[in-house]
Amino acid sequence: MTSTADHVATIDHLRARDFPARPTADGRVESGPGFHIADLRVSEDFWDADLSRVEEVLEEFEAELSALDRVLTSRWGAPDVLDLTDSLERSAMGDPVPPPLDTLCGYVPELRVWRVNGRWVGLGVGQGDRESPFQLLVAMGEEGAI
After folding, report:
1. How far apart are CA 140 and CA 34, in angstroms?
2. Of 140, 116, 112, 115, which Cα lies nearest the Cα of 126?
3. How far apart are CA 88 and CA 104, in angstroms?
4. Is there a contact between 124 and 108 (Cβ–Cβ < 8 Å)?
């Protein structure tokens, strides 16, 4: 398991990284014009797991998200909360949703978002479906994109 300090180091590394001109994937980082998305932690999948195990892992991920939220809030102030329901509904209706929200809205219900030095930085916990792993992720993009 990684620590909060490891997560902060990953976030700082991504903040310093340029956005690529074309979509790329490098390990647990997906990038494209104007954005990066990185898995900070990924759980096991839940194909045969009972509900109590799923709830236990979700609680762990939410606690890790809260710890990271506290560190970033001490740096940058309180985050905004971005509900991705509208993006998911637009996507489902075939309306355009800008990246990276087009990807995130399929498995992350909301992001905690800070605006820092011309970029936004968002944290969230998501799960694609009941059997999929939980993901603690960071996403960032150019200011004004959300």
Report:
1. 8
2. 112
3. 9
4. yes
Q: How many C-alpha atoms does 36 have within 13 Å on its Cβ side?
A: 23
At position 83, the amino acid (one-letter code) is D
Distance CA 121, CA 92 (A): 25
The CA-based dihedral angle spanning residues 98, 73, 4, 146, taken in that order and rounded to the nearest 10 degrees? 0
CB neighbours of 87 closer than 8 A, spacing ≥ 6? 97, 101, 102, 104, 105
**Per-residue pLDDT tens digits for 42-98:** 999 998 888 899 999 999 999 999 999 999 999 999 999 999 999 999 999 999 998
pLDDT at 1: 52
The size of the chain, in residues, is 146
Q: How far is CA 100 from CA 2, 30, 110, 135, in A?
A: 24, 9, 13, 15
Of residues 107, 119, 120, the one with CA closest to residue 42: 107
How many other β-carbons are positioned within 10 Å of the β-carbon of residue 64? 21
Closest C-alpha among 25, 21, 3, 5 to residue 13: 5
Q: Tell me, rounded to whole angstroms, the distance of Cα 50 from its chain centroid.
A: 25
Domain parsing of the chain, residue ranges: 4-142
